[in-house]
Design a protein that fits this description.
The protein folds into 2 domains: about 70 residues, OB fold (Dihydrolipoamide Acetyltransferase, E2P); about 140 residues, 3-Layer(aba) Sandwich (Trna Endonuclease, Chain: A, domain 1), CATH 3.40.1350.60. It is about 15% helix and about 45% strand. The protein contains 3 helices and 15 strands. The protein has a 6-stranded mixed sheet. The protein has a 5-stranded mixed barrel with strand order 1-2-3-5-4. The protein has a 3-stranded mixed sheet with strand order 10-11-13. Strand 8 and strand 9 form a beta hairpin.
Length: about 220
């Protein structure tokens, strides 16, 4: 892992970083707005790829704000959750007998399908990097994709599934709210379906770029 300072983001997938008195351009896998994270001069961490076919050699992994590392590489989100499920770190799911990533249901895909204690379970994962002084918040921009996932999860009940939404909190905030100031429609549907039909789970991801580790901690957030 390498460490530098954030300069700017542009064309969504490009981030300029100051590193050892040079300016390098990193690939930014995060498609969200990152509206509260892009603070000029903030410490960042990034990785290096040995793939010579890549246009950009470096990938932005996280930003240090408010005395904490926020993991921004959303490509890593499902890998982290997959490993946690395999290790039994997500305590709601025990005796997992089947675990499938990118599970197809109709014309849609949900992040995980698992079978546990004779139950068929769907889990959609959302990485939550938006926060204020008190709350972690989702979404950070209008999300048609997120809205579609809510509907798919609700409709899956009729097919015999038990649907879950797992919000992976990237900050150290112990409270969560739906950010209706960024997507009012999403939050309206969220409040209709969660927790009445879709079970919410909240886990904090503690990211340590110095040791390149992640650890998940369950948050008791009542909905």
């Amino acid at each position: 892992m390498y460490f530098g300072r954030f300069i700017k983001r542009y064309k969504r997938f490009f981030v300029d970083v100051e590193y050892e008195n040079n300016i390098i351009t990193c690939h930014n896998p995060n498609t969200g707005s990152m509206r509260n994270l892009l603070v000029k001069g903030a410490p960042v961490c990034f990785s290096r790829s040995n793939n010579t076919k890549r246009k950009l050699q470096y990938t932005l992994e996280g930003i240090y704000l408010d005395n904490q590392w926020i993991q921004t590489n959303t490509i890593q989100t499902n890998r982290i959750v997959y490993n946690a499920l395999k290790k039994g770190e997500i305590v709601e799911f025990t005796n997992i007998t089947k675990l499938v990533r990118e599970y197809s249901i109709g014309n849609n895909r949900i992040d995980f399908y698992l079978e546990s204690n004779s139950q068929k379970i769907l889990i959609e994962v959302k990485s939550v990097s938006l926060f204020d002084r008190e709350y972690a918040m989702f979404p950070d921009a209008k999300t048609e994709r997120g809205l579609k996932h809510l509907i798919v999860l609700k409709n899956s009940i009729d097919l015999g599934y038990i649907p879950y939404l797992l919000y992976l909190i990237q900050s150290n905030r112990g409270k969560f709210r739906c950010a209706e100031e960024f997507d009012k429609r999403y939050c309206e549907i969220y409040k209709e379906l969660v927790p009445k039909f879709i079970k919410p789970l909240f886990y904090q991801n503690v990211f340590d770029p110095y040791n390149n580790t992640n650890s998940l901690h369950r948050l008791d957030i009542l909905k």
